[in-house]
Amino acid sequence: MGITFKSSEQTFHLQSKNTSYIFMVKEGGYLVHLYWGKRIREYNHSNKVRFEDRGFSPNPLESDRTFSLDTLPQEYPQFGTTDFRDPAYQVQSENGSTITDLRYNSHKIVKGKPNLEGLPSTYIDKEEEAETLEVTLIDSELHLKVVLSYTTFKDFDVVTRSVRFVNEGVEKLRLLKVASMNVDFHDADFDIVTLPGAHIRERHISRTPLREGVQSVESRRGASSHQHNPFLALARKETDEDHGEVFAFNFVYSGNFLGSVEVDQFNQTRVNMGINPFDFTWLLEPDESFQSPEVVMAYSGDGFGGMSKTFHKLYRTRLCRGKFRDEERPVLINNWEATYFDFNEDKLTGLATQSGALGIELFVLDDGWFGKRDDDYSSLGDWFVDKKKLPNGLKNLAENIQQEGMQFGLWFEPEMVSEDSELYRKHPDWCIHVPERQRSKGRSQLILDFSREDVCEEIIQQISNTLSSAPITYVKWDMNRHMTEVGSGALPKERQRETAHRYMLGLYKVMEEITTRFPNILFESCSGGGGRFDPGMLYYMPQTWTSDNTDAISRLKIQYGTSLVYPISSMGAHVSAVPNHQVHRNTSLKTRGIVAMSGNFGYELDITELTDEERAEVMKQTFFYKENRSVIQFGEFYRLKNPFEGNDTSWMFVSEDQQEAIIAYVQVLADPAPAFSVIKLKGLAPYKKYRIDELEKTFYGDELMNVGINVPMMKGDFQSFMWKLIEV
């Protein structure tokens, strides 16, 4: 494992657990990509780059008509010096030109992994876990230095990449595009896999063949978005859940992004990913630098399942941080769908009392507790208690709930402001806006300008005051609209197109400060549900509200798609009332529980209206989940049946020691005269014997995985089962 440089051939070989990544410095100082895939012992140029005199592909080296950047597989390509494909970056000089010419200057290999200042990124606990290569490129005309950073991990089949631009000249430079990575594959025999969606329909799986031209996934909404997740993968045609190659890319960033895949005229594939260049520029003054966010690049030779296992473990243990990284998450109840804005202290205490009696551990007070918030038209930005609803304050409410044996949590939307608020009346210029333009609203609210230091400090102080005022152990951090009229009253005109990125830097600063001040609070991020379910958020908050859609059948696809990249411990999942408030479907409490128990489990309904039979089922669910949550939240996750391909869905969790497992199965619609079905399990120890209590039978792991087990005949729509396997 590690990074080696063969000076005689100018070749870099990055090795991780099962992966090799190889590139070289070619004549003229160009970085040429050679290989990324299954680990090899030594590289001896078996796929040596070949050159041919190609028509209409110009030559940067006058002496060689076969050499053109237009055909060369590169590490960090540029515009204007014979490559006509999508560049990884673009810089404008003071004379208006956008031509650059970066060449290799030097490199260094260091133990460990440096942090990215002001940005979220993967990390290490011990220096020996990783090595980092920094390659310095220079444009001697512009006096521009660009440092490409590559980190390879001992225990993960990933390479993380980022880029730093440094202006070492006397002229101002303007960054027009900054991708954090680029890979030029030597062929195009791939499908592209992405996670598109919408609000209440997030992260569905799309798989389509590559074609000549450009295919991309992006957000221009000021957030990573419900519509497109900052993820894409290239999979070989034959790749399935357990077999075949996958090359995956995930951007550790929560704002505007672009992931681009281009197949060129010679059937080569270029992938780059970074901040979306749409409506972005960055003025780089002399002696200033710009750091790009990180891209995590994961390779799997074992299909999508192998890719997911890599992402899950890396993100759970080396992206999420703090006390709750390795701590079991509580079963909660959120009052939102039970009361919406209509509540008082007695109503909340009554909900908490009955919830605690059913085994629920955490009561979360959602929107409506602050300012004069009786609807969603006012009070965002006024983070003080509404004494009309809570005359005795948050502290008294929280302590009363604690006396019921429960923890207390609270909802915030710190990034937003209502026009009808004390904060807005005092500081109308503190929102994202363009002078003389109308201020379009979403959900009747505006966005605070987190590119401003004064705004960030005000919100840090307000939130800190509230969190210090009562025994609060959980925070749901929401964000319910995307950016329009993007501009800042605090930035000069030449920096207005920096607003969206400066907003993200400010947001990360606020989150870092608050989560550091309150290390014993479990923070869950949210953006209308899953509108910012990305690695950047997980760095500060180890779980995310997966979707505002709590319908169990909708959640089969949402949670399945999310699991492609993000660990189970990061997914909030709740049982809600029926008919469901989003799609108006009626689903049994049992099935709602099984789907929700496959994430961080909770409830979002009026617990006081349950029948005795329903209360008994809730007690059964909470007991089962608490008994098995370590396996669910921190075990290995296996997808067994795909909801995008059939009428049923199945998945399972296996403990790290393979002594316990949980299997879940959901049938969506009943079929007449159905066929008998068998399902093959995964991840068990072949030689271990497992008892399935629900069947009162015992089987060896190899039988369950190779022969499979009968799926019970189920009558009716939306039927399900969840079984526990335990080694005997």
Describe the global form.
globular
Low-confidence stretches: none
Cα-to-Cα separation, first versus last residue:
38 Å
Biggest pleated sheet: 10 strands, antiparallel
* Count of helical regions: 12
Percentage of β-strand residues: 25-35%
Instruction: Compute the number of strand runs.
Output: 38
Helix content: 10-25%
> What Rg, in angstroms, do the CA atoms define?
27 Å
- Kindly report the average pLDDT value: 97
Q: Which secondary-structure class do the elements indicate?
A: alpha+beta
How would you explain this protein's 3D organization?
It is a single chain. The protein has 728 residues and is an alpha+beta fold. The protein is 19% helix and 30% strand. Strands 6, 7, 8, 9, 11, 12, 14, 15, 19 and 20 form a 10-stranded antiparallel beta sheet that branches. An 8-stranded parallel β-barrel has the order 21-22-23-26-27-28-29-30, surrounded by 5 helices. Helix 9 packs parallel to helix 10. The radius of gyration is 27 Å and the shape is globular.
